[in-house]
Known about the structure:
The chain is α/β, with parallel strands linked by helices. The protein has a domain at 2-115: Adenylosuccinate Synthetase, Chain A, domain 1, CATH 3.40.440. It has 4 helices and 9 strands; from the N terminus they run E-E-H-E-E-E-E-E-H-E-E-H-H. The chain has helices at residues 28-36, 88-100, 119-132, 144-151, and strands at 2-6, 12-17, 41-44, 53-57, 60-64, 77-80, 85-86, 108-110, 115-116.
Amino acid sequence: MAMYQIDEKGSTMAVIAVIGAQWGDEGKGKIVDELSMHAQYVVRYQGGSNAGHRVVYDKGEFAFRLVPSGILYPNTTCIIGNGVVVDPKGLIAEMDELKHLGVDISHLYISERAHVVMPYHFLLDRLEEQARGADKIDSTQRGIGPAYVDIAPNFRTSCNKRTV
């Protein structure tokens, strides 16, 4: 996640980037949540819905997977950026749940260059995990790995419906 401040002249001010050094579970989400209340922009720049973090806030608690937790702050613009692989069904479910909890999501934007997790990515993830047998990697089987594999040779399926 990256957070940006922009001054009244439109110049970019401080940028804070929270970057994980391993495969997750470092506590990035908790750090981002604490910093989000002071940020104008919170940008998720990579990853998918295979992980997530639970945030406790004044209306209860919520398990974030794709939407940046800055969405809880009405003055913070949240962006799901081009490096994110988006499961459309999962994203819609997360957005619906946030709306149901009374969270305004009108300040959430999704890059048209974000990549889409397609149904076959879920299948490939499951089949690859089964084929590994005892050497399985305990994939979440949410299609994230296969979606990134498709991006590597520029065979991406983007949110803007272009295939490059």
